[in-house]
Amino acid sequence: MTTTASTPEKSENSTAGSESPALHVEGLWKIFGPRADKIIGTEQAHLPRKELQEQTGHVVGIRDVSFDVAPGEVFVVMGLSGSGKSTLVRLLTRLIEPTAGTVELYGEKITGMDDSALLDTRRRKVSMVFQHFGLLPHRKVVDNVAFGLEVRGEGKRQRRDRAQEMVDLVGLSGYENNYPDQLSGGMQQRVGLARALAADPEVLMFDEPFSALDPLIRRDMQNEVIRLHEEVGKTMVFITHDLAEALKLGDRILIMRDGEIVQIGTPDEVVGAPADDYVRDFTSEVPKSHVLTLKWVMRPDTGDVSADAPALQQDQIVRDAARIVLDHQGPCRVVDGDRVVGVVDDEDILRVVVAEEAH
Amino acid sequence: MATATAPPPEAPDRPVSKEEQPYVEVGKKRHTGVKLLAVLAVWLVLYAILKGHDTRSLGLQDTTGFHDWLNRVRDWVQLHGPDNWFFGGVLGFIGDVFNSVFAHLQKLFSIPAFPRPVPQIGWFGVVAIAAWITWAVAGIRSTILVTVSMLLFGIFGLWQDSIDLLLVTILAVAVCFLIGLPTGIAMARTRWVSTVVTPILDIAQTLPPFAYLAPVALGFGIGPTTAIVLTIIYALPPLVRITEYGIRAVPQTTIEAARSLGLTKGQLLRQVQLPMAKRSIVVGINQSMMAALSMATIAALVNGPGLGKDVNAALQIQNVGQASVAGLLIVLMAIMLDRTTTAASERSESQGRSGLVSVSGPGVLLMGVMVEKLPRWATEDAGKGVRHPRLTGAGRWTIRALWLVPVLVAVYLSRSQLDLARFPDRTVWPFLEPIDGTSVTKLINDFSSWFIDKVDTFTLALKNDVTAWLINPFQNLLAQSPWWVMGLVILALAYVLGGWRPAVTSAICLAVIFGVGLWNDSMVTLAMTLIATVLVMVVAVVLGVGMGRSRRTDTIIRPFLDAFQTIPPFVYLVPALALFGVGRFTAIMAALAYAVPIATKLVADGIRGVAPTTVEAARASGSTTRQMITKVQLPMAREALVLATNQGLLYVLSMVVIGGLVGGGSLGYIVVSGFSQDQLFGKGLAAGIAITAMGVMLDRIARHAAARTGR
Questions:
Q1: Of A72, A119, A136, which is closest to B632 when you measure between CB atoms?
Q2: d(C-alpha B351, C-alpha B138), whole Å
Q3: How far is A42 from chain B (nearest CA, A)?
Q4: With an 8 Å Cβ cutoff, are B621 and A70 in contact?
Q5: Rounded CA gap, B651 and B208, in Å?
Q6: Lowest-confidence range among A109-123, B21-35, B111-125, B484-498?
Q7: I need a surface site. Which of B33, B78, B438, B600 has the fewest CB within 10 A?
Q8: CB contact under 8 A, B27 and A179
Q9: Angle at A31 between CA A27 and CA A34, to 5 degrees
Q10: Helices B681-708 and B666-676: crossing angle, nearest 10°?
Q11: What is the mean pLDDT of residues B154-169?
């Protein structure tokens, strides 16, 4: 629990909003090994991974993770391989059984569900997209997309119609009667996407969906996810090891290391106020002007700025504000709504831009 | 708002996709199911109308002109063979060589060597030699197994037959090694050799062992020579195949590296390919050995020496106890040979590696130092935590040589002491009384009659029900349909399932079956084969799915399958006979027991081979266990299923034929009668040909069907 509060919560953060979270995770643990439940709650549980493995032969996958995801949010979990992010996403629908902790989906406790309720959740409320697609090679595209509907017992006509709709939605019209191995990697992942969408779930989960794709196609697919998010507005939990992808897609980002949360925050928070050296190291290569907002570069309002200077919103991205600030001779005002919260001048902007050049 | 800091919306005119979308053509529908149903419907109608016409059935003692012609060929070979360059010259020479080598071996190990009343080396010496060899190649556990097994050969009173069987097997494998290794090497190194030999191996491996019997017996007469030749023919293909595979499996980069160092072709073979293929070759010897043992057992039907004779004789008089004792010893021998060669192959692996660090052999030997001289830190692998045997290669051989001394003493003793020469029976060693062959036979007979008493209402009911409701109707459908209807049905099925290629093969095979005049019997055999295969697949899918899905189930079941696979087919007849008495059902049950292990393993591997991501994706979609099996795992393992069916078919066919011995009737029985009744020889040979044709036909249809179901 100590690890979660590493950044100051901002008012715009969804967790503090009045609506109940789409996904509420609290005190989630996963320890691999035969006597995992005996270790929880003892001192051993807090040993570093390596020591625990040496002493007991058990491996910590996820250590005491808590977070909330707001409805409609794109929540990115990012970390290097072995950091536990893939385990985490599987714990959420109990594809891997958690050792301790609770997961709630719109107030419904997933941990503690009986088997049939869990099946129902997987069939109707949560869908997943996988890194290696997980398509059925013996079924046509349209039947792959309809698979989820089929297992929940929908009629052939109905599921075909719905599947066709999804195939069109992801831009695969015309390929519905092909088999997966006739498609390229990106197209196969579109099938995976369509399959996940077909069930019309409340939450979509992506487990490194684009890691196996070429960079160009990956960008393509990221845009596709953004487009789909705008069109269907699902809550998304997105796993990735690619920081650029995380910053591009995420409303908020959870950074993991060794099964623990290092930081949760919006992209500009992660870049502007890294929680520790690990995150700082991670984010050092990021073009900051593309991510940081004015509030990270402004100085306190000293009162000497003329009232006719341009007013810029504090959550505007530095890059977008740069032109106005540089054009205006002298400092500009930074406002939160109508209230002036600080000032920014060309030097402040250039510091961010030039710092990047130094790399 | 959650999306307050989300990136600004992309421009709507963003390019749709940069990824090149491949052109794909839509596969055509085959409607296989509908076509099969149509064929079935037409067949049933024709059967109802034409039942019993043109069935080409032939009484057991009846022969056709073709059979008589074969008889005359046989007569001619017997009369003029010795003068003919081929039969007398080539085959006669081979036969003489094998005969004299085998006779010498027998005198050395198993039969009285005149003027001595006992073999040159008595049982005590033989056990000592066998134990020493096993210890040298395979290690101490195998030695214990071999020693105990060989003592049991004697205790059960079947010493001579056991040793004879062992001699046939080992002699055949030795010849296989001499022929097979060069052939395999040549195949791996020269493309055209491979192109020529591979189809021959394909056919040889498709043939049920029974099909070989008559032609070989025609060439070599009846007796040990035929048994050895049969065994060689049957045991050669696996060795050649695996040798070729082993040499080909040497990575291309290794070969390139070796050639860049300037190795000649011969050096490449000796120093790179053979050492790296060593493990495969030993596995090939193992496979060859198991095949040899099973064929050597069957060769009892052509008067081959060994334990097969005892099983056969006991089966004739339906003495379950006697057959079990001999059968048990065969199983024991199979396990002992299998374990020993497996242990040897595992050891060849570890020694090949440790050889890198052992110091020079002869030098160490000279100093009489057997413990590795160089400390481990001086070797390349220092500090890597690699455990090496303490002995160098030379050291190991020195120890082996030392142990040879007591072996030679044992051999000497076995030549001078009668009790150590002839295995003592209960009159000499009274303590053997409760465990010797006679007692065990009685024990098994008592137990089996007690057990059969308890269960025979059940087994009989099962047998009768299955016979009445499944075997008879199906057999009638196949055997009572007019031959031309049956032929067309088979051709149509071959075409629908596998396309025109297997249809052509089938047409040729059917013509052969028709031509040899055994249409009706072949259809009976076909009916039994198909029924048994269906049963095999039902069992294999149930077990295989269980094994493929659960590691634990796999660990429990797999050792049983391994054990079952080492048992020669002949032996399966014994328990089947004990439980179900004579009849077609018994043959089917034996076939079931014989074919289930291989089919189950293939299904299990197929299920396990299903991509884990797909399984996880299906789980995430909320599939139940049942949905997972029927919609994901079985369909994705389809290729493995078809392969399992193909293998199951061939195994079943060979066993159903052997089942002729326990009332399976039809082709198998005709083959057997061919050896026992002079005037039926030609018919037996013809039955062998029919079996071959059927095996090839079923194999081709199954293979092409398999290739088609890739999707």
A1: A136
A2: 12
A3: 31
A4: no
A5: 8
A6: B21-35
A7: B33
A8: yes
A9: 135
A10: 150
A11: 88
